[in-house]
Amino acid sequence: QGQEKLSCNPKKENGTHVVLCELGNPMKAGARITVDMELSVSGLEDMGDAITFHLQLRSKNSPSPSNASVTVTVPVEAEAEMELRGNSLPATVVLPTSWHWVEGSRRLEDHGIKVEHVYELHNKGPGTVSGVTLSLAIPHLLGNHVLLYLLELGTEGGTNCSHHPALNPAQV
Where does this polypeptide localize (predicted)? Predict the structure, then answer.
């Protein structure tokens, strides 16, 4: 009929976390109750795809006809919002109309103006992430002409990186 808060006490039994809730004392014979529970569980990052709760109704009456139990499996979904930030230094490049690629040269100036692209991938939470893959496509050819000459690729923070096409093919 009415709603009231339960008195619950957490404890640990044989390495298992147990929460005992008093539903009514005394409870009238034939009483029917519905219990809605909201649980806050931390440290689920390594729990896999689901967490299982074993619920059991026990009576202190003697004799107790049954101690009904039920198992509830709840899917665990990790949530994390990723943010990609990028910047080019310089922000704008204007090539002179008289500039031409110098074939066979090993001087950087003969291959174009240096532009550095910096990308930062941030986890905005709330969960942690692992196994993230960032694919970045950089147009390096325009038809048969070199658009961007890819000189080097660097990472920070324990990031693994694979690249294609070959970096610095003319070894400038």
Answer: Membrane
